[in-house]
Structure formats: structure tokens, C-alpha cells
Amino acid sequence: MEKVNEKDTDTLCCVTSTAPVNIAMIKYWGKKDTDLIIPLNGSLSATLDQGQLCAKTSVAISRSFKNDRLWLNGTEQSIDNPRIQSVLNEMRRRIRKRKFDESDLSESFTQGMSKWHLHIVSVNNFPTAAGLASSAAGYACLVHALSKLFNIEGEVSSIARVGSGSACRSMYGGWVEWLPGEDTGSSIAVQVAPEDHWPEIRVLILVVNDQKKPVGSTDGMQATVRTSDLMQYRAKKVVPKRINMIKKAIFDKDFETFAEVTMKESNQLHAVCMDTHPPIFYMNDTSKQIIRFVHDFNNEENTIRAAYTFDAGPNACIFLLEENVKKFISSFSRKFPPSSYENYIRGIPVNFEQPTPATPVKGDLLKYIIHTKVGAGPAIVGDEAESLIGNDGLPK
Ligand SMILES: Nc1ncnc2c1ncn2[C@@H]1O[C@H](COP(=O)(O)OP(=O)(O)OP(=O)(O)O)[C@@H](O)[C@H]1O
Ligand SMILES: C[C@@](O)(CCOP(=O)(O)OP(=O)(O)O)CC(=O)O
């Protein structure tokens, strides 16, 4: 980060962060406050390693900037996006609220700086808006970089939450719970176990489709809240018990219980989507064939070796132990042969035998598999050469 000289107020000050995506085992689906993004029920997720999937965001501030501007994946976007505005407003509110000693020059400078304009440049190293939790990584990354720029200390997951609910869980590494809370101060994410707690866990994202999905999570979940009777039962009676069960399973490294709760949760999310009127379908035929495949794979040896979970889209996320990865991929690729094995496994390399196709399933071919693991939370990128913003304040 460029050193800020309090007298030279035109100096460009820039911070760059990276942030991870997270995949929920206990699903967030439905808000009781849509402005503040307070969820109907708690949720719990695993943060994924940034080596495979991450957002990277540079934020720069300078007195010479004429207005706030945002570039996402190389294209300028409207900064008037209400979610981005919520994050910026909350950030500025926190700075104003902070008690400060006027003789503290750097604090006075930060207070003044918060009135200048920002340039935000962000890129995702994976498809955006395709059900791969890009919004979670994106808003977590923005909040992390802005908090460092403005020296905001303490609890900041609630700032990420106003960008996108699931983003609050991407503020921590490892296994993370979002406590639903009642107001903006109590609806926060907490780490339940660090990333090295259960190192044998691996994650395979089976990408069936990486195009933009037809019904976004924000609209889909509120349609469910308005019209599904099952949803109320789920939030009050089912989720709290499942959160306790899965936390215990994670602490005890009890894969079978972890897997069973994860699969039932995914199925209940899609059941309340089906109970929405008119119904919402996120899974396609291939997704359903993948569910059948995982149950068959588990039945083969009469032990649960893999668990699936699906969010608001057709892509499956599979949790399994490292010792079962090769076997799963070989067996899976027999049933779901890709159109090409070139660039088929992305992320952590796997040496598996390319099988001769068995009886392939009908439906969409699988595009590729991302092989990853549980990883750390957001981080600052110290090397200025890695910044996405040049000395002129524009994207490099
Ligand atoms: N790096 C980023 N920085 C800022 N905003 C981002 C970033 N990445 C994504 N977003 C915002 O999130 C939106 C995509 O969110 P959306 O919920 O539609 O998809 P998703 O997060 O990929 O899928 P899902 O939430 O179902 O997993 C983008 O249109 C953009 O507004
Ligand atoms: C199915 C989910 O992935 C829903 C994610 O919803 P979002 O966090 O994208 O919704 P908004 O708060 O409206 O931005 C389940 C989950 O991640 O818990």
C-alpha cells in the first residue's frame, strides 16, 4: 500500500484484498428483513480454498476522483447498484460513528478521507452469477479491502451481509456459522472451526452449467417466504436442530452424520423451492442423476463416502474425504463422461484413470470439475504490483 502523507491530500491510497467463496451445508433461504438482510434462519458453511476460487478487489481513494466508480471483470458497472450502495453507506456510517481524538492525525485523515470518492476494481477467477457464490466472494472482498483502507476494526461480517447475505460467511476461513440475529448488530458470522481442523475434507464442484441462472437467489427466496407453508416449519423446527447436529459432526469429524445432514438440507432447500407458488426449479435432469449416482456410490460399500449439496442452480458440490476422491472421479466419469478430458479437472490435480464410458446418462454433459478443499478467509495482497488499479486511479 502506498504510504499516505497527511499533507499531500491528492495522494492515491490503494488496498487490494482477496476473498473466498463459501458453500453452505445448512442453507440460508429467506429473509425476515429484506433491507438489512436479516435471515429467517441460521446457516453454516465451509469456506473454500482461494487457490482455486477467489475474488480479488482493489479499492483506491483520492481527493482528485470526481465520483465513485466500479469495474467488475473488466467492465465498468453502475455504482448505483443498491447492494454496493448499502455496503458503502454502512462503511461510512461506521467511520462517522467512531470516537476519535482530533489530535490523532492519521484518524483525522481517515475521517476526512471517507468523504472522498472511491474507485473499486474487482475480478473473479471463476464464472460470475452462475451459482458459484461469486456475490459472496465479491462482497466479502470489497468489505475486507475497505475495512483495511479505513482502519475499521472488529466485527465487519455484518457489513458484508448487507451486500449479499451469504457474503458474511466468506469473512472467515474454515467452518462458519451465520447467527441469524434480530438486528444488524447481532446478525453476524462466526468461525466454528478453523480451516486446518478437518484437513482430509475435499470438495468437488461438478459444473453442469456456468451460465447466468434464470431466477436469482434474492428473488427466489422471497417468493418462497411469501408462498411456502413448509418454509416456516423448516426455519423454526428443522434448521436449529440441524445446525447443532452438523456442528457436532464437524467437531467430532464424523463424516457420516455430516454427509447425511448436508444431503437432507440440500433436498429440503429444493423442496421449499418446489413448494413455492409458482414453483422454482434450480436442479435439472443431470443434477437429479448426480443425486442418484451419489446414493449408489454410497450404497456400493454400504458406507457414506460422499455428500452432495446444490444451491440456486444445477451445479453439484460434493464433500468427501481425500482418500475417496480418485475413486469418486473415476466412477463418476464412467457414468457422466465429459465431452473432453482436456482441462476436465481444475484446481488440485488428481491422478485418476480415464474410464471407458459405461452407460452414460442422458442430459447435459458435465463441463468440468473444480477440485478444492476448505480454506482461509480474506487476505490483504501486500505486493503493489498485484494491484488492479494503476497510479492514474484506473484499472490496469
Ligand atoms: N467480485 C465482485 N465484486 C463485486 N460484486 C460482485 C463480484 N462478483 C459478483 N458480484 C455481484 O454479484 C452478482 C452475482 O450474484 P448472484 O447471486 O446472481 O450469483 P452468484 O453469487 O454467482 O450465485 P449464488 O449466490 O446463487 O451462489 C453480480 O451480478 C455482481 O453484482
Ligand atoms: C442458496 C444459497 O446459496 C443462497 C444464497 O443467497 P444470497 O446470499 O446470494 O442471497 P442475498 O442475500 O439475497 O444476496 C444458500 C446459502 O448460501 O446459504
What is the topology?
Blueprint: E1 13-20, E2 22-26, E3 31-33, E4 38-39, E5 43-47, E6 54-62, E7 69-72, E8 75-77, H1 82-97, H2 105-113, E9 117-124, H3 134-149, H4 157-163, E10 175-179, E11 188-193, E12 201-207, H5 217-227, H6 229-252, H7 255-274, H8 285-300, E13 306-310, E14 316-321, H9 325-335, E15 345-347, E16 368-373, E17 379-380
Parallel strand pairs: 7-9, 15-16
Antiparallel strand pairs: 1-6, 1-17, 2-5, 3-4, 5-10, 6-9, 7-8, 10-11, 12-14, 12-16, 13-14
The structure holds adenosine-5'-triphosphate and ligand DP6.
The ligand C[C@@](O)(CCOP(=O)(O)OP(=O)(O)O)CC(=O)O is lined by residues 24, 27-29, 37, 43, 135, 164-166, 217-218, 311-312.
Number of helices: 9
- Global structural class: alpha+beta
- Return the string of H and E elements: EEEEEEEEHHEHHEEEHHHHEEHEEE
Uncertain parts: 1-9
Which ligands appear in the coordinates? Answer: adenosine-5'-triphosphate, the ligand C[C@@](O)(CCOP(=O)(O)OP(=O)(O)O)CC(=O)O
CATH class of the largest domain: Alpha Beta
Q: Tell me which CATH architecture of the largest domain applies here.
A: 2-Layer Sandwich
Largest sheet: 6 strands, mixed
What report would you give on this structure?
It is a single chain. The chain has 396 residues and is of the alpha+beta class. The chain has two domains: 13-194 and 378-386, Ribosomal Protein S5, domain 2 (2-Layer Sandwich); 201-373, Alpha-Beta Plaits (2-Layer Sandwich). The chain is 33% helix and 22% strand. It has helices at residues 82-97, 105-113, 134-149, 157-163, 217-227, 229-252, 255-274, 285-300, 325-335; strands at 13-20, 22-26, 31-33, 38-39, 43-47, 54-62, 69-72, 75-77, 117-124, 175-179, 188-193, 201-207, 306-310, 316-321, 345-347, 368-373, 379-380. A six-stranded mixed beta sheet has the order 8-7-9-6-1-17. A five-stranded mixed beta sheet has the order 13-14-12-16-15. Helix 1 runs antiparallel to helix 4 and helix 6 packs antiparallel against helix 7. The protein is globular, with a radius of gyration of 22 Å. It starts with 12 loop residues before the first strand and ends in a 16-residue tail after the last strand. Residues 1-9 have low confidence and may be disordered. Bound molecules: adenosine-5'-triphosphate and the ligand C[C@@](O)(CCOP(=O)(O)OP(=O)(O)O)CC(=O)O. Residues 24, 27-29, 37, 43, 135, 164-166, 217-218, 311-312 line the site of ligand DP6.
